[in-house]
Amino acid sequence: MTIEELYEQIGGDYEQAKRVLRMDKLIDKHIRKLATNGIIESLITAGVALDPTTMFESAHAVKGYCANLGLTRISDLASELSEEYRPGNPRKMSDEEVRAKVDEIKELYRKSVEGVEQYESSLN
Question: Could you identify which of 3, 21, 75, 101 might form a hypothetical disulfide with 66, taking C-beta atoms 3.0 to 4.6 angstroms apart as the criterion?
Fold first, then answer.
């Protein structure tokens, strides 16, 4: 499996990742860290308590991290949550809507991690 095939499988935007990271070697390096860096798990955990500060910080971090990796759907959802919890912004979503977005991120993340694992196996 190539890195481009991985991105196609997980619904990522390879061209976006290429624009930011510039080299397949860097894309490979960073996409392989997806399962172990803990950034998305922090947002998933924050989605349980819905603490405004933690939700904003976690969502904002996920938004940038995933945008750089070309994981645009996760980045877009995290951006919505980031704006929902941005200090000074009034809340517009119900807690159930927020949790539904966190659940969607969790599912996209799971599929992405599975894809990365398949990609890594194909290289061995």
Answer: 75
